Amino acid sequence: MNRREFLRTLGAGAAAALGRAAAQAQAAAPGAVPAPAAPAPAPAASAVRKPNIIFILADDLGYADVGCYGQQRIRTPSIDRLAAEGVRFTQAYSGATVCAPSRCSLMTGLHGGHAHIRGNREVQPEGQEPLSAESVTVARVLKDAGYKTACIGKWGLGMNGTTGDPNRHGFDLFFGYLCQRKAHSYYPEYLWRNGEKAPLDGKTYSHDLMAAEALRFVRENKDRPFLLYLAFTIPHGKYEAPDAGPYAAEPWPQVEKTYAAMITRMDADIGRLMALLRECGLDGDTLVFFASDNGPAKLDAFKSAGPLRGMKRDLYEGGIRVPMIARWPGRIKAAATSDQVWAFWDFPATAAEVAGAAWPAGGDGISMVPALLGRPQRGHEYLYWEFHERGFSQAVRAGNWKAVRNRPSQPIELYDLAADLGEKNNLADARPDVAAKMEELLKSARTDSPLFPIREPPAGKAAPARKKA
Ligand SMILES: [Ca+2]
User: Fold this and answer.
1) How far apart are CA 15 and CA 263, in angstroms?
2) How far is the CA of 103 from the centre of ligand 1 (A)?
3) pLDDT (tens digit, 9 = 90+) per residue, 195-252?
4) Which terminus in the chain has less CB density within 10 A, N or C?
């Protein structure tokens, strides 16, 4: 049985993953292998200039931490406006359930079963496991296509001078935290600018510097195509903000005021960035994404994961399903909602198509340009994640079936996301046929990594039985 036949035996759920149009094609011709949707012509082809691309990434922001995804208490008018002017995806996924591997997927187009970086692997005294020299990044491909490229914010994929240096991976400009551990303080002694330490006084809120740098980069490059990967550190802990913003008078615990103020502060900076695009006449020439790198970290107070189970470090939906908004006036229909299933490893192929460039074959991603433009979209056969803390855990989604295995020696849990978004009703015993097939996917979706070996949790540390976020 080949992969396609195998997936077909998973039934209607798998068809759903193929995208609505492809699923219809499959229904119309039973037994036929659905042809991939013809790639949409690159929007850049007819444009005077190649479109700019801005990817705004929040850090540990939950699926429901912003208003347009159901948040009631934290004010996010600018992000909500992005959604009102663009498309809001309800089934988009991060690359992983923690920072570094999620960002590796976003940059390289590989999911966690194939990526070089599959976990937060720390390097002392500063930094994380670096991207390999041969890793192909979206920045490299766009730079080669004539783009000016910047990463502003948190990198986490290798220090300056290593194979993971962002300046060696296609970024003309890097400004921010190379090491994600250092980003745990919002008042650092220094940030990095293109491999040089930029000293600070320890009293300056680093987010404000990164927001200002983003505006400067856009202004300086308004006359040529650019890629801006704006990896804000908000709302990752520790929870620090210069003030409580509009929440100062709320009768909330201080940590909640701070958390909300951080998100609202970031939201205001996103508003300033959008205003600058309008001021520079770049609105119609700029595709803007907004997403988060993984689920919420700690706080239950804001119901940050909404109806989803789990949080950061879980492979339940709350750990990996993230807000994803795309705005491109004149191209993307305003106030649209899409249930297209896609993930961070689709971003490089998507950006390459927008830029009129070729993304190298062999990755895990699919260009989501058709979905962005409201056209028929070829979907994924399945999505795969793995996680290497607390032992080794895995998850796969095929159609509406979702399987999670929290440690190698445990049986899988099986959920039907269409009927059970909160992953409460384990159907592994009721549907052994589906469970067995999902188990095959958990094996075949990955290659072994010497850096990130499969292992049981250390003795005495049980696999996650975490409370709901
Ligand atoms: Ca994160």
Assistant:
1) 37
2) 9
3) 999 999 999 999 999 999 999 999 999 999 999 999 999 999 999 999 999 999 999 9
4) N
Please report where in the chains the tokens 């220090």 appear, as a residue.
Answer: 159
Judge whether 446 and 405 are in contact, CB under 8 Å.
no
Long-range contacts, stretch 42-47, CB < 8 angstroms, 24+ apart: 42/353, 42/354, 42/355, 42/356, 42/369, 43/331, 43/354, 43/369, 43/373, 44/354, 44/355, 44/356, 45/356, 47/285
Contact 64/306 with Cβ under 8 angstroms? yes
Q: How far is the CA of 46 from the centre of ligand 1 (A)?
A: 37
User: Ligand 1 centroid vs 41 CA: distance in angstroms?
Assistant: 34
Ligand 1 centroid to residue 134 C-alpha, Å: 25
Classify 47-372 by CATH class.
alpha beta
| Separation of alpha carbons 84 and 327, rounded Å | 9
Please spell the DSSP secondary structure of 54-115, one letter per residue: EEEEESS--TTSSGGGT-SSS--HHHHHHHHHSEEEEEEE-S-SSHHHHHHHHHH---TTT-
Q: Both tokens of residue 258? A: 């701070």
Q: Tell me: cis bond preceding 298? Omega within 30 of 0 counts.
A: no
**102: CA distance to ligand 1 center in Å?**
8
If you measure from the C-alpha of residue 12 to the centroid of ligand 1, how many angstroms do you get, rounded to a whole number?
33
Distance 99 CA to ligand 1 centre (A): 4
Q: Which amino acid is at 77?
A: P
Q: pTM of the entire structure?
A: 0.90
Under 8 Å between Cβ of 133 and 357: no
- CA–CA dist 7, 17 (Å, integer): 10
Lowest mean pLDDT among 18-32, 254-268, 449-463: 18-32
